[in-house]
Structure formats: C-alpha cells, structure tokens
Amino acid sequence: MKPMGACAGEEARFLRCAPHRTLGALALIIVLMVLALGAAFPALAVADQPDTSYDAAVLDGSSVADANRTQLVLVVRFQGDATGDGSTGLNAPPAFAPDATAPANTQWSQVMARLNDARAATYRAPSLYQYVDTVSDGQCRLRTVSPQSDRATGRITYLTLPKARDAYVNTGVLLDDALTAFNAAYPQFDARTLDGDGNGVADNILVVPEVGADSPTTGSPLWPHEADYGGNLTVGQGAKAVKVGTYTLVDSGRLANGTVGTVIHETLHAFGAKDLYRLDSSLESQRDVAVGVWDIMAQHGGSKLMRPLAISRQDCGWTTIEEVAGGTVTLYAPGSGKRQAVKFKAPYSTTEYFVAEFRRANTDIGNLSALDTYQDGSPSTIGGSGLVIYRVNPSQKQTGITSGNKGDKDYVYVFRKGETGAPRGDGVGDLRHAQLTAPGYKLPSANSLSPTATPATRSKAGSTNPDDGLEEGALTYADGTNSGVVVTVTAQTEESITFTIAQPDADKLGLWRDALDAPGASPLPTQGFEATKLEAGADGAVYQLCERRNAGGAQVFRYDGTAWKSLGSVGEGYRQFSAQWFDGALYLCGVQYGASPRVALWRWSGSRWETTATLSAAANKPVLGEVAGSLYLFADGAGAEAGLYRLSGNVLQKVTVLNDGYLAGAVIADVGGEPALLVSNFDRQETTLYRLKAGTWSKQRLHSGAPQILDRTATKNGPVFLTLQQDGGQDSTLRLVTFSNGVPTVISLPDTLPSSFDASLVVEGSKVYVALATQASQQVRVYRSTLDNLGSWDAVGSTVISPSMGVDLEAFQGALLCASVASAEDPVSLRRFGTLDPSAPSVTPVPPSSSGSGSSATGTTKPGTGGSGSSGTSDSTAKPGASASGSSGTPSATKPGSSSSAKPSSTSSSSKPTASKKPKRPATPQWRSFKRAKRAVTVRWKKVKKASGYQVKYSTSKKFTKKATKVKRVARGSATSVKLKSLKSKRTYYVKIRAYQKVGKTYVYSKWTKVKKVRVK
C-alpha cells in the first residue's frame, strides 16, 4: 500500500534537524522565533517536536483512561538481527536529550507517547489517540497496549521471527509468526481486552517490523499498509483468546521519525476509510491529485495534519451525512456538535452524489496540535476556511486493490478551479483553495506570526450549461456529464457557513434520469453483471435482464413505471440471453457452452421461473421471435448446422435446418406471416435475409459486410431491421432495412451519426429512435428521425450515460427507456427520457433543448456533454476528452467464436440519403519529434492554424484496442507538445494526433496523423 500522498517527501522536508527543546520560557521564545522564520521561509518550517518527558502510563495504555477501543502493538525483528539489544533500535536514547525527570527515556517510550499521549500540548502534533478521538467526535477512543514494554525503563523487548527479512514475501505469514511468538512469550495476556466492540475480534493489531536504516520501498511486504488477516491463529490463548481481523503494519523507521501521520492513515483504514490518492499522483507537480490536503487518507505533511472528509468519517462509522434536496443550508464548524456536511443528488443519477462540507482553518501556525492548519506558501496545508464540494461515486468504494481512488475512476473527487481534462480530470488546478467562501470574507488570524489572509477563492461552483465540464467549473459525474447543480455561498463566520443548492431543471437540460420506484429507489445490481437487455410486456411493464459475468445466468427485474419487482435469477451457467413476450408471459432463452452445448427456454409463470424446454444445440447466441402467433427459437450453430424451432406446448419442435456458412447475430421477424431471419454471414462477409416459405428457405443478399450488431422492431408495414457494421478502425456503418409489400429496402444512415460499437432500435409510428454506444468515448446517445426522412437526425436529450459497453432501447408509457452497463465492476442502469404516462400509446420525447444538448445529422451541433465525445465520422462533431476509461480504441470486429478480425467489405445500399454539408475540418497536424524520458514521452507537432486544441491518442496496441488506449486532450490551439506520463517502461507505444476547432458549440476534428511508434525508457 502506498502511504498517503506526501509521506516520504513531506517527512523529509519537515523533519530535518529539529532542535532540542525544553519547556522553559526561554525555549518557548526560541520555538516561536523559529516558527516565525518558518512562516517567512516555508522551507525552514519546523516539524512536530517529540515530547521527551517520560510518562510510563503511555507504555501500557493506562494514560487513556476513557478508551473504548484497543489495539495491540507487536514489535518484531528478523532472524539473526540483534537490533534492540542494549541501546540500539527502538531502545536507543531518544533523538533529543531526555529531561532530568526522565532518565530512562527511550525512542520506544516516545513512540508510545505518539500513540497514547492524552496530554494537551500545542507544541506537538496530536497523538493517535487524540486525533481519532477528535475526528470521531469522541466516539472512538483508541488506546494502544504493548505487553512487550517495560514500564520502569521505557524499553521494548523485541519478538524475534524465525525467518530472515527477505523470506517474508507475504505479510500474512509474517503476522502468523508474530502471533506465534507473542502467544508463546506472553501466555497470560488477556486478549479479550482488545475486543472493544464485543464481536469476538481484536479491534486491530499494529505490527512494527524493525528495518534499521533499510527503509522498505513501494511494493515491499513491509511497506506501510492495512489488511484483513486470512489465517487461523488467535491472539491470546484459551478462554482469553480473540480472533484477529484487521491489522496494520508500519515499520520502525516511520514510527521513530517523529511523525504520526502514517500510522493515523493506516489506522483509519482499519476502521473503514479508503485510500483517496490516485496511484499515479504526484504531489511535487500537483498532478493526478483528486483530494490532496483535504483528507489525511490522501495526503499529510509532517506535523501539519488535516481532518478526514465527512465521507471518510462516515466510512469509519463515526458520522452519517444527511441528505438534502436543495435550497438554503447552514453548516457548522468541526467540533461544534452540529451538522458539518450534507449530501445532495441531481436527477441524472441515484448512485453518485455530491457532498458540501464546511472546513474551518487553523491560522495559529504555532499550535501544532490543531488540525487543518492554514499557512500561506505551505503546499501541505489547506488554503483557508470555507465550503468544500466533492463527488462520491459509491461503485468505486469496494473494488479490491483498486478501491477508493486507486482505480481508473475516483471514489471521491474534490472540485477546484483550474482543472483540466475530462471526464476524470487531470488532478491539477488550485486544490488548496478548493473551498468556496462568502464574498468579502477574510480569514482571521489567531497568531501575530501569521498575518490576516485572504486566500484566492470563489463563492460559487457549478454550471447550468449542459455542455460544460470540469474545465468550465461544472459539478460533473464520473462520466463527465454536468449535473447542472449550482452551489453558492451567501454568508460565513468563523463558526458557520450558509449556502444555496440550486437543482437543475432536468427537462430543460434534456437529462436522462434513472428509472425509479415511487420512493425513489432502484433494485438494479451495482456490480457483477456484464450485459443487460429490455423487453416490453403486454402487461403494462418492461422487463430488464441482467447477465452475470462469472457464473452465468441472469437476474430479471420488472418495472411498471412506479414500482420495481425482482423476478429472481434464472439459467445459472447459461449465457447470451434473449427475451420475448409471448402469449401473456415472458420467455427467455440462453446457451450453455462446452463440449456438449445446450440451449434452454424458460417461462415466468407469475411466481417462479419454469424450464420450458432444452435442446442439445450449439449457438453463439440463441434468439426468440414471435411469428404469426407462434414462438420461434433460432440456434445459429456456432459455425455448424443452424436450426429453427417452434414452441408447441412445452416442446421445441425443429422446423428446419440452415446450412449456409458461419452465421451469427441473427434476429427473427414476421414477414407476411412467415418466419424471416436477418443474419450476418461471416464466411461470405455479407448480410443475408432468409425467408421460410412452405418449409424451404429463400435467400437474399442485402448488403456486403457482416454486421456485429443487429436489432429489429415490428411496425404495421412489417419489421424494421437495424445493422451496425464496424470496420476494425474508428468507423462504423449503420443501416436500416425496411419493408414495403414484403420487399426489403436497405438504407445507409448518415455518417454524421457517431461511430459506434453497439446500437438499439425503436420505431413508434413514423418515428425512429436509435441508441448508440459511441466508439471514441463509450457514451450512450439516443437519436431520432422519421421513416420518410432518414437523412436528418436529432439528439434526444443529453448523454444517457458514460461509459457503456452495451445498450438497449425500449419505448414505454410515452417515454424512452435505455438500459446500459459499462463493465462487471459498474452498476447496471435503466434511464428514462420523457414523462411516464400509462395511458400514452406511443413515445413523445421532448425535443432537444436550444442550449446545445441536441445534435443534428449535419454534424453542426455538438452531440454530447463531457467526456471524450463522439463524432459522426470519428473525425467531426465530437467533444475532445482525456481519460483512460473514455478514450478507447475500437473494439475488434471479430467473428463470433473466433479471435480473427472480420474485415467488412465496402458498403452498398439501395437508398442513401444525402446529409447536409459538414463544417470544414482543420488541417491535419504535422509530426515533429519524440523526446523520451523515464516512463514518459514528450510528443511534438507543428501548430495548426485556427486550431482550438489537439487530441493525442496513444496505445500499447497497434490496433488501438480499448483497454490499451488512452487519449490526452490539449486545450490550447497554440500548443505544440504534450508530455505523456506514467507509461510502461520498455514498452512500445503507438501515437497519433488530430487537431480540433470549436465553432460555437461545435467541435470539428481534423484527420488523424499517421501512426508513429516510440519505445519508452
């Protein structure tokens, strides 16, 4: 585990050459003089001065008289190590000469004072006990006990482990050996005293390995961290034993160096707090910093300790953040016993939310015991008192080794002025002064050494313009979408702050909102599912299938517009589900892969799932369809013989077979009362329509190329098919197939619709709706046209969701519903646009707003808000972005069941509308050079005339595959270089550049440069 933020750097900066100090008046004057110099010259700022007066009570924890939680500290050394014998190691004399009253003082007694001292003192940082007691508002009073300590001498008796240091590659094994050694050395220890909450488990075990001068490095088993013990040993013996749950590990060097920040950080982990630093964060350059000085779980600076945010305290169980809808709110200073933070949501999401929290700065820089110190010029202190606004994304809280902010998304993100990049943000800007303050408010001074300060802050955060993102000061979601919320501070004192929360008009902004029940909740799963589909029933409800990633099977939910109901799980071990409403019930089918593949059909009886039929048949994906009052199932054969089946009672009867090459992606439709199949034929690289008449298949080639996505919807004139064909690069082709008197017509849709990797179709009357998961940004957008004018398309509202790896669209009660999921680590979503009306016969969505949320097929309107955007031809009309998750390459166009790419042929159509003229593209940038550095590359190009900025796409994949690709946005037209950081050493990267020009709300892109490759040092 990486210690918070600036541990190593800040300790080195603040703990150099700390002078000896007595408690006399002369010494106090000297300290104040040094502090004054520190204020004038931050590089000379003084660290926490260790308290050298010897208090034996800190050694056994009796100094903490009101403790309600207890941790055991185990000090260990490795086989063959004699450190600790005599006056060595933690038994060495203190770094500062002891007072006359403390002749037996040792470094260990000083360490225990930093853990247990309950005495108030302004000349040193708070002890672990004092810090936890303060930030928990007295709810957690933690003492540390050490049976290894000698109360009379202040010495520690080391436990010697049976292996050498290098033999411990797993700290669980180290803890096993430490527990064994402790239980043998202290058989009478009553470990029940460690169980403060009565759950039979020790509150925490702190392991302190002796490392001497060889400080552990990042990734070492001895690097400071917190973990759950996975072994079977207990601490204590017999009836006096308790189980071991969490443990923390902090090496002897960090404990003895005079600061307590690292052990506080790890201890808060034990109570539930998450890491709030990004793995690639750089406090020196202030890049990739999401939270920084506003939470000790992100950063600490020697003696300058800050509070945890309210979300961290909530994760520890010490507070509950109250939710408010909006309006005027007053918060109070920490320690007041009153409300310090509130959370609020916007209509766009029910999972992510925002928190407003009042932080009061300590301006007395001579008081080292105070938290949240403000010191001008010190990067390790907060920038003043005020209201901090941050986003919480609960889906990132528990994600294994990437929990908190260590994954590709942030659990907590603090909004600040000067941020760049989207949707995640580059983690730059004025984070120290992220707080909002009332107009004219001045920070008072409690110490003459620190002058009255007026930090450069602001009174308002947020934007109502749906096109604005982080760079424009919007309060955005993790996908870069503007929430539309605006927070304004109106009044402020030292003790309180008052502000307003203005919620957006969701309909005016064209927001897609989560489909909720009457109480405002949704039961859709938050992780573990990789695909989702919708099916409208004739019972006034829509059904959502959620397919599990690992074990297979589906979980199904019913939504009637006001209430959700779970229909439970079905088909464990099966995958690739399809659904069809038939004869008053919902039917599902799926395939079980393996040496003996099977296809199964299930029916929801109203109270449980019933297995209707099973087949010994192979399929990439079996599909269902109703034709002339019968239910049909098609199994494509996965490269072998395909079969069409009809349900008769509880039996699937084989109607006929189809042997015509490798078929996949089929959809079934009713054409003139006979079954019809639209299928991708990968062997012949074409899209084929098969129609069954009198038991015989007829075949019609509709167009070249084998689409990866096919969808269909029924109309009174026959089915309408949608095909999406990827070209293996950044482009894709969308086509509709319509019927008139049974004759199909293929229509290629304008290339100004975004290049996409998934699509879904709904036709209501003459209106056509297409949901697209876009290539460049993985955003989901919905577009609308009419069957008689398919050359013109408008966006329906704003971005539905981002990122997404799959989408399904359905018309329901006069509104549109869109289902999506990004990955198995993300929530499944269902979002709606329009007002649900059970009496509505068809969809009547609100037209796009004039503020820019809409988009036309001509490419002259911006089709998206936030994120990387998407383009009609992957080169025009997209908003540039810069995030790992929102800047993917193109998903491979592959033959199902095969790893080889399926390269489509040229497109053809019988009717191709003519789109309006596009804006003129900027010139393509010209390459200059690369400059290589350690894990970094500087990319240089020639300036493009009239460019507003540039996108640099880089990947370890020659094909720019999604997982291996990132995009860096450079938001200055005058820029001619950018440094790509945190690259993989000794790897070859492929790089290309394009320019963009912003005209009003339109982003017009140049073509990409030729791909260059560079090997990283």
Q: Give a short account of the largest sheet.
A: 6 strands, mixed
Helix content: under 10%
SSE-based structural type: mainly beta
How would you sum up the global shape? globular
Could you give the distance between the termini?
25 Å
The helix tally amounts to 10
User: Roughly what is the average pLDDT, rounded to an integer?
Assistant: 82
Which residues sit in consecutive blocks of at least 5 with pLDDT less than 50?
1-53, 98-104, 447-453, 841-918
**Count of extended strands:** 53
What's the gyration radius in Å? 32 Å
Strand content: 25-35%
Short description:
The chain has 10 helices and 53 strands. It is mainly beta and 1017 residues long. The longest helix is centred in the N-terminal third of the chain and has 16 residues.
Which labels suit this protein?
1017 residues, mainly beta, 10 helices, 53 strands, 9% helix, disordered N terminus
Q: Would you kindly provide a written description of the structure presented here, covering whatever features stand out?
A:
The N terminus is likely disordered. Strand 11 and strand 12 form a beta hairpin. The strands form 13 sheets. Strands 1, 2, 3, 4, 5 and 8 form a six-stranded mixed β-sheet that branches. The protein starts with 6 loop residues before the first helix and ends with a strand. The protein is 9% helix and 32% strand. With 1017 residues, it is mainly β.
